[in-house]
Amino acid sequence: MLVEYPISGRGAAEISASVERAVAAGDLLPGQPLPPMRELARRLEVNPNTVAAAYRVLRERGVIETAGRRGSRVRAKPATTGREELRVDVPDGVRDLSAGNPDPALLPALAGVFAEAAAQADREPVLYGADPEEPGLVRQARAELAADGVPDGPLAVTSGSLDAIERVLAAHLRPGDAVAVEDPGWGSLLDLIPALGLRTVPVGVDDDGPLPDDVRAALDAGARALIVTDRAQNPTGAVLSAPRARALRAILAGHPDLLLIEDDHGHRIVDLPLSPLAGTTRSWAFVRSAAKAYGPDLRLAVLTGDPVTLDRVRGRQRLGPGWVSRLTQRAVARLWSGGAVDTRAVAARYAERREALIGALAERGVAAHGRSGLNVWVPVPDETGAVARLLHAGWAVAPGARFRLSAPPGIRVTVADLSPDEAPAVADAIADALRSSPRRHLV
After folding, report:
1. pTM higher than 0.90 for the full model?
2. E strands present in 6-126
3. Model confidence over 316-341: pLDDT tens digits?
4. Contact criterion met (CB below 8 Å) for 44 and 8
5. How many CA atoms does the CB half-sphere of 260 hold within 13 Å?
6. Where is 188: in which H helix or E strand?
7. How would you label 333-362 residue by residue, b for 16+ Cβ within 10 Å and e otherwise?
């Protein structure tokens, strides 16, 4: 049955806006077909080329997809229905373990480093035409990247990891191209890809990173890009191990034209070594952000990669925001080089909290994952029921639907500020919630 919503408009922009409003309002549902272009053109009394242009805009925005003779339909997860809408409303008196934030108590004080950066700015104002990257930050970043085995390459500074990834994807891909992504994976990234008009291809993940067979299948099927989280994978806590990295490099060697993007947002909160894939393909990018170690509001990431990729990213950045505040860059450079954070101690605190919850769950027969980072992933048979029962018990956790494409259901528990003493109570609540489910998901 074709769509009954009355699409309106005379121009392509009006028609596409009408469809997008309907999707956002729920009048057009995911999977619902749109009228054939010629039929809609007759209804609206416009040229079929106008409708074709409107549908093209909607595809590029990730709102609809077209499958040849089967026509166009609303995407199963359109860009206008972001995963952020799946957040849990946390009532008063309920402990929030859903947000994915670092522990504020483990973040450094920022007043001093910003005061020093501001004093330098008073002496040496940054004006139009100045270098977009702060030399001190570049030196520090290059030294640490080299120490971690990341190949030497040009460097840029972006407004966080997602900004860097978006710019790299836009520099290489066109609407309709396929991107292989971890499943489960970062919800914001899973929203971004269709919003750019790209297609997501799910790749399974275990504790050691992306599964080689899934990566091989995705690339053989035509995926033009692969995005990998090296450490503190969100939501599972996976870490790309050295053996897994060797297996993936062997696969990537057969796809030299692939765009490879690595996200190391776990830098300085994870005490496990980095096993980078960078440099295996001609086009590559490696992103390292400051958010988890120093605070999400800093909005800063360092990006390196092959010369062509970095040239395209920096060129487009110059036409938009121009540069990331050098004041902020100077502050982060001081944080990185000044020992403001005892990174070993921070990583150890997060590890203690993860291991306390995973151990308590294991004692109750519940499987969980979390080798690194701020979160623990618990497979469950019924996400909605588990989230609701835990909320009733006084604990808010994130539904796995925020992070999944085709992976089995689960819940994400943020342990960043969960003390080891609290772990047994959370584990009891999770075990009780699973016992109330139709099928228990136990070890």
Report:
1. no
2. 64-66, 72-74, 95-96
3. 999 999 999 999 999 999 998 876 67
4. yes
5. 25
6. helix 187-195
7. bbbbeeebbebeebbebbbebbbbbbebbe
